[in-house]
Amino acid sequence: MTLKHISTGPSEVLVELEALSKSFDGHVAVRGVNLQFYQGEIFALLGGSGCGKSTLLRMLAGFEKPSGGRILLNGQDIAHIPPYKRPFNMMFQSYALFPHMTVEQNIAYGLKQDKLSKTEIDKTVTEMLKLVHMEAYRTRKPSQLSGGQRQRVALARSLAKHPKLLLLDEPMGALDKKLRGEMQLELVDIIKQVGVTCVMVTHDQEEAMTMADRIGVMNAGEILQIGSPHDIYEYPNCRYVADFIGEVNLFEGRILEEEPAYVIIEVPNLERPIYIDHGISGPGGTRPVGVAVRPEKMRMSAEQPDEQYNWGKGIIDDLAYLGQHSIYHVKMSDGKFVQITQTNDKRRETPFELEQEIFLSWNPDACVVLEK
Amino acid sequence: MRFKFSNLMLGLGLAFLYIPMLILIIYSFNESRLVTVWAGFSTKWYASLLENEKLLEAVGKSLQIAFFSATGAVVLGTLAAFVLARFKGFKGSTLLRGMLTAPLVMPEVITGLSLLLLFVAMAQAIGWPEQRGMLTIWLAHTTFCTAYVAVVVGSRLTEMDMSVEEAAQDLGATPVKVFFNITLPIIAPALISGWLLAFTLSLDDLVIASFVSGPGSTTLPMVVFSSVRLGVSPEINALAAIIIGIVSLLVFASWFYARRVERARLKDIQAMKNG
Amino acid sequence: MKLPEPKHPFWQRLSALPFLQGRNGVIALPYLWLLLFFLVPFIIVLKISFAETEIAIPPYTDLMTVEDGHVQIDLNFNNYGYLFSDDLYLKSYLSSIRIALVSTFICLLVGYPMALAISRAKPSTRNVLLLLVILPSWTSFLIRIYAWIGILKPNGYINNALMGMGLIDEPIIMLHTDFAVYVGIVYAYLPFMILPLYANMMKLDHSLVEASADLGASPIRTLFSVIVPLTKAGILAGCMLVFIPAVGEFVIPELLGGPETLMIGKILWQEFFNNRDWPVASAVAIIMLMILILPIMWFDRVQNKQQEA
Fold first, then answer.
1. Does A8 reside within a domain?
2. Domain ranges of chain C
3. Which residue does chain B place closest to A154, by CA atoms?
4. Count of domains for chain A
């Protein structure tokens, strides 16, 4: 696996989680998480519901006390500091705007708690409203705003105190699909403009990949993989991550030959063994492994490929024309299904038909070997 | 078919609820002392009501007790509801829950008797309360009204978005500040309806007050009861008409107010959608 | 919210107690109040139900006596024995339960279609209808019961009207009968049946009703196989809200019932105020409580489940 470094300047650790865990009445929500957040990055905790990502975020905010481990801010443990004394601010999924206060009062609320002077508060509020393009709505109540506008106010409110860490809980969760795409990019713009370090929680991989510099994939209270969106997609380190991020075809096989420069894996019922043009790290020996190939990295042809490796035979079981691309479900010789996407780069009906026998092939560098 | 039937029942049910009250009001303007025989229009029973000093004094006492009981009940009931809604599963929360729901259904004779015996036992043990009267009625009413306030406030608290409170904490407000700055203003309408409910419950209570009252603390229901026991009287009709009138007026005023607020809100939403 | 300012050493020591600090202090205020004014009184009632009557102030004996340095506790079961020896009490309990059960059932029969009709109405009409149902319970209970005296009495509105129309020659005796008590209880408690039913029906997902109709069920069938089972919690809450207080009702049997209307609330009142027999009144209350404890706990559970949902 290659590690690509992110281009956000010097990686200075701001917050570090050490063996952080949390259990509720014997049920473990977060188990022994070690994680570092770097100054200025946007980090996304990605996982399905109940994976512990929200609990982790709430521990960062201070709403849950950890059952074990430490939360270090610049080297100091803050795990037991109450939320109202932490220099972290959160944007809630429901936005949690105070319904009885105006936009202005909402943004000023946190500043008032710091006993700032009226002119200072006024200045910051104006600055924040400008930042989120909401100057015209200063005296409105939250009930008089649309969903997108509420989100802007919520963001302004959580940025007003210039927190060391900004926490976003499912930031697009309350918006409709159309608005999401726009707001994702705008949110990133604003966060980068302010330069605040940000940890967000989401179940939407597209959102995580669009917005985050780094992603941590969580399952069952543990972090499975940390990396850039590209790393996570192209080089998943386990079956769960490969399957959770995007679509994937998994072949279960055994290692036939393992050399520093290549690996050959035999998959039962696949016409040809899988050949991978790089070495893998692992315990060595013939052992069962999984091989992941993304649907868009597969090719279909009516004729049998000439290659010695990396192809199989199947019958088109189902196909869906989606405009931009088409999805094929191919039933392989062993009865398993493989999914292939093909870009519709020519203006014609799908080139293949239902029940047609076809050959699938892929390049040696398209595969990822999964040991876990 | 079913819809027609249920609508018919609704009509009949509402008639059943309102006809007796309407008759009371109509016959309060009856000239004759014989309440059930119409003998011409008159407002003389209202005038004689105003001269009934015993009754007026009782009204004053009842209003005082109701005011203070409602206030006490709102404080205690709000605290209790808050504690149950926000400090989930603390030790003894089940007992507190039980002590808040049981008074809603407890027969009044039992509540009255038990409180009286408590006051007697306390007077014996620590010499307080020395005498039964307004104070003991206030204590009793505050206690049973607390349960009603807790229901009203509790349902508002549970439907309130808790992340609003968390957001305030997150922005640096201490829990006490959050309660006063955020929670209280948001649940204020529930506090008002809880207070009004407690006020009317206290104003209306006969049984508990009869048990725990002492000499010189006769409340309005006690006066009405001793008079009603002797049969119908046109003065009581006049009193009934006044009570029904005041309550209807207040209820409809608050309804109109709530409707206006709601309409303004809908208009905001409309305006927002249109740009 | 805050404890009184420490003025006196007692307050200082009190507010320094760990269970009165911070969060615990907030819990302690309503908790202690309800313990003292709701729970402790029942213990005292229980205690006095084992005492003997005495012509004194207060009119009962102490259970504990100190004799030769020994604390002696005399539990006197005579009051309970007395309740079971005189069948007046047994009859009153049974008749209270019967009257309360029948009234609850009538309230349910009348209230359920009413609640259904309200929940089906347009939102604007719905609020007015709901208000109309609640409004009577905000006016005086006593006066609403009083209204029925004029209606039911021998020369009351009903008899006057019937005789005026020539339908009857002699007035029908309605006041001071069990019939009048039923009317009074249903009249007074109907709103308490309708409100929880309505609240429950509003939570009902209307698409379930449509799904049932779509699957071919007749409206009546839908009512009994979908709506009624799904509003069980509301039915239970409404029934408990009517039944439990009705068992102990005093004002209605006193004003509308006759001498042969036996209701335990009235008996308790008479034992206490007329006979000044506090121990027997206490025993009456304890037995009543034992009858009602199960329904009360039931109600408690339904209520809390609804609040948590």
1. no
2. 9-73, 82-308
3. B167
4. 2
pLDDT tens-digit series, residues C200-235: 999 888 888 888 888 888 888 888 888 899 999 999
| CATH label of the domain that carries residue A298 | 2.40.50.140
Mutate to test the interface with B, among A93, A105, A109 (most CBs of B within 10 A): A109
Structure token digits, residue A360: 């699938």
C262-284: average pLDDT: 92
β A325-332/A274-276 pair status: unpaired
B234 contact C CB<8A: no
Chain C residue numbers touching B27 (CB-CB < 8 A):
150
For all residues of chain A together, what is the average pLDDT?
Answer: 88
Of C120, C109, C129, whose CA–CA distance to C238 is shortest? C109
Helix axes of C278-308 and C232-247: crossing angle, nearest 10 degrees: 170
Chain B interface disruption, residue of A55, A86, A144, most B CBs within 10 A = A144
Strand partners for A340 = A328
Structurally, chain B folds into a number of domains equal to 1
Q: How far is A242 from chain B (nearest CA, A)?
A: 34
Q: Measure C20 CA to nearest chain B CA, in Å.
A: 14
Query: How many other β-carbons are positioned within 10 Å of the β-carbon of residue C180?
Result: 25
Q: Is residue A1 part of a domain?
A: no
Query: Which range has the worst mean pLDDT, A34-43, B220-229, C5-14?
Result: C5-14
For the ranges A131-145, C52-66, C229-243, the lowest mean pLDDT is seen at C52-66
The pLDDT score that the predictor gives to residue B128 is: 84
Question: Residue C300 pLDDT > 60, yes or no?
Answer: yes
Hey, are the CB atoms on A113 and B161 less than 8 Å from each other? no
C contact chains, 3+ CB pairs < 8 A:
B
How many beta-carbon contacts under 8 Å exist across B and C? 256
Listed in sequence order, the DSSP H helices in chain B are 2-27, 44-51, 53-86, 93-105, 108-126, 134-159, 162-170, 175-178, 184-204, 207-212, 220-228, 234-273
End-to-end Cα separation, chain B, in angstroms = 45
Q: Does residue A5 sit within a domain? A: no
The confidence score (pLDDT) of residue B40 equals 86
Domain at B241, CATH number: 1.10.3720.10
Cross-chain Cβ contact B18/C136 below 8 Å: yes
Please give the DSSP secondary-structure letter assigned to residue B179: I
Q: Among partner residues B143, B179, B228, which is closest to C37 by beta-carbon distance?
A: B143
Chain B residues touching chain A at CB-CB below 8 Å: 161, 163-164, 166-175, 177, 181-182, 185-186, 265, 268-269, 271-273
| CA distance linking residue A194 with residue A93, whole number of Å | 21
In-domain check, residue A6: no
Mean pLDDT of the B112-122 span: 94
Task: Name the 3-class secondary structure at B130.
Answer: coil
- Cβ contacts of B263 within 8 Å, gap of 6 or more: none
What pLDDT score does C1 carry? 40
Please report whether residue B13 resides in a domain: no
Cβ atoms within 10 Å, residue B127: 8
Tell me, yes or no, whether A176 and A269 share the same domain. no
The verdict on a CB contact (< 8 Å) between B114 and C285 is yes
Structure tokens at C100: 């309360």
Which of B7, B14, B17 has the most C C-beta neighbours within 10 Å, making it the best mutation to test the interface with C?
B17
Q: With a cut of 50, which residues of chain A have pLDDT below it?
A: 1-8
CATH assignment, C82-308: 1.10.3720.10
Q: Are residues A289 and A188 in the same domain?
A: no
Q: How far is C244 from chain B (nearest CA, A)?
A: 6
Question: Could B167 and A84 be called an inter-chain contact, meaning their C-beta atoms sit closer than 8 Å?
Answer: no
At B67-91, the pLDDT tens digits run 999 999 999 999 999 999 988 778 8
Q: Is residue B88 part of a domain?
A: yes
Residues of chain B with Cβ-Cβ distance to C257 below 8 Å are none
Q: Residue B134 has what pLDDT?
A: 93
Per-residue pLDDT tens digits for B92-102: 889 999 999 99
pLDDT, tens digit (0-9, with 9 covering 90-100), for B159-206: 898 999 999 999 999 999 999 999 999 999 999 989 999 999 999 999
Amino acid code (one letter) for A216: G
Quick one: tokens of C10?
A: 């007692």
